[in-house]
């Protein structure tokens, strides 16, 4: 695995040089390049930049513990360290860390110059080619493109396809909004619901995320805000009346939107953590339980027979069971169909498609707009309990859990 990256900043007279300090997704472009490579597994960096450029670039990294003691600064005329093979990056091309990691793994170093099949993409450079590649990279994306065109068919140049999220060469400040939108759109998860998540929550969260990255807030703080909005919405739902129900539903929906915002901001600013994953998932579940509890209170005090308190309890058990089996499998890191029989695999796509909060949200809106909260509790009591039982019958427990 290549663990050293040479990051070449375009010469000051190149138009791209003015973009190094432009903020994209809340981070300066140069800092984002290093953090992306760090996330992809790169341990050390050699930054090639003129002395006037270095002052501003050092300021971008000041105080960032993720890059402390990992960066060596050299000027274009200095002698370059020559590891056996290194990664060469242009800081004006935005890359996604997962796609970069997979590309590095496929671009096995064999003493040849290896390039991505895209303009301005990363290069794997052997020591003997490094000075020429750096000189070309000082001319920006166009300089590297011309250099590779000269080598094509003449030298040991190999092309390795880029897979996953596309690269985004930034050519002007005017392109930043479009690039940010494309980055956020790429964060969408296959676990998103096909209706509410796709057409409502993600549409609104993309706009909010672009605002939040410019503010001094952390993803975990956004998660707490999502929790507070959800709990306030749940409390309003225990009150009778159309206005209280509408206000509660709007706050609940805001909680769901913020639930996407925290993840998008975390990925944009490289602030994701295991704590954030746990906090995010459990806060969602707390909100769902609060909604069930408040609606159960509402139907019980309205004079309906008291046995509906048991219906609320059954709903809470069903939602908790569904949450635990899905979250447990997500933590295991195992493919869900690892132990499925052929018959179970026919059920698996439906279970995976329902592993989100779309159903909960749609049922809540529909039943409360019809002023039938009891219907909502029945839907959860039957549907959620059937769901987690079907999940266990289909997938069982993760192997690590079943051995304990």
Explain what this protein looks like in three dimensions.
This protein folds into two domains: 4-169, Spore Coat Polysaccharide Biosynthesis Protein SpsA, Chain A, CATH 3.90.550.10; 190-402, Four Helix Bundle (Hemerythrin (Met), subunit A) (Up-down Bundle). It has 15 helices and eleven strands. The chain is an alpha/beta fold. A hairpin with a 2-residue loop joins strand 2 and strand 3. It has helices spanning 29-39, 51-61, 97-106, 130-137, 140-151, 176-186, 196-212, 219-237, 242-269, 274-301, 308-332, 342-353, 358-369, 373-395, 399-402; strands spanning 4-8, 23-24, 27-28, 44-48, 71-74, 85-89, 93-94, 113-116, 123-126, 157-160, 168-169. The chain is elongated, with a radius of gyration of 26 Å.
* Neighbour order of strands in the largest sheet: 5-4-1-6-9-8-10
CATH architecture of the largest domain: Up-down Bundle
* Shape verdict: elongated
- The domain tally reads 2
Structural class: alpha/beta
Low-confidence stretches: none
Number of helices: 15
Report the CATH superfamily of the largest domain: CDP-alcohol phosphotransferase transmembrane (TM) domain
- Look at the structure and give the mean pLDDT: 89
CATH class of the largest domain: Mainly Alpha
- The radius of gyration is 26 Å
Distance between the termini: 34 Å
The major pleated sheet works out as:
7 strands, mixed
Name the helix and strand elements from N-terminus to C-terminus, one letter apiece: EEEHEHEEEHEEHHEEHHHHHHHHHH
- Percentage of helical residues? 55-70%
């Amino acid at each position: 695995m290549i663990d050293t990256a040479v990051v070449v900043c375009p010469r000051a007279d190149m138009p791209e040089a003015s973009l190094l300090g432009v903020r994209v997704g809340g981070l300066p472009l140069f800092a984002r390049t290093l953090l992306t490579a760090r996330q992809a597994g790169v341990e050390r960096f050699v930054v090639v930049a003129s002395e006037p450029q270095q002052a501003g670039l050092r300021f971008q990294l000041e105080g960032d513990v993720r890059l402390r003691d990992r960066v060596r600064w050299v000027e274009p005329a200095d002698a370059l360290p020559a590891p056996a093979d290194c990664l060469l990056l242009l800081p004006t091309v935005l890359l996604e860390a997962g796609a970069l990691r997979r590309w590095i793994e496929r671009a096995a170093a064999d003493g040849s110059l290896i390039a991505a099949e895209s303009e301005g993409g990363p290069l794997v450079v052997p020591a003997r080619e490094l000075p020429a590649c750096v000189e070309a990279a000082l001319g920006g994306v166009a300089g590297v493109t011309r250099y590779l065109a000269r080598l094509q068919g003449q030298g040991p140049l190999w092309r390795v396809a880029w897979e996953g999220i596309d690269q985004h060469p930034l050519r002007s400040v005017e392109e930043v909004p479009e690039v940010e939108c494309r980055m956020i759109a790429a964060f969408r998860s296959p676990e998103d619901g096909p209706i509410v998540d796709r057409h409502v929550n993600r549409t609104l969260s993309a706009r909010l995320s672009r605002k939040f990255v410019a503010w001094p807030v952390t993803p975990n703080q956004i998660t707490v805000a999502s929790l507070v909005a959800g709990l306030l919405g749940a409390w309003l739902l225990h009150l009778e009346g159309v206005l209280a129900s509408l206000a509660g539903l709007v706050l609940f929906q805001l909680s769901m939107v913020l639930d996407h915002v925290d993840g998008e901001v975390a990925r944009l600013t490289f602030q994701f953590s295991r704590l954030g994953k746990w906090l995010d998932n459990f806060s969602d579940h707390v909100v769902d339980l609060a909604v069930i509890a408040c609606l159960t209170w509402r139907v019980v005090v309205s004079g309906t027979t008291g046995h509906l308190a048991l219906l609320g309890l059954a709903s809470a058990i069903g939602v908790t069971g569904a949450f635990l089996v899905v979250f447990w499998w997500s933590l295991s890191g195992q493919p869900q169909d690892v132990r499925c029989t052929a018959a179970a695999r026919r059920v698996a796509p439906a279970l995976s498609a329902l592993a989100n909060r779309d159903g909960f949200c749609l049922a809540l809106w529909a039943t409360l707009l019809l002023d039938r909260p009891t219907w909502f509790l029945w839907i959860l009591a039957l549907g959620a309990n059937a769901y987690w039982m079907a999940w266990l019958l289909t997938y069982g427990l993760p192997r690590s859990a079943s051995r304990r």
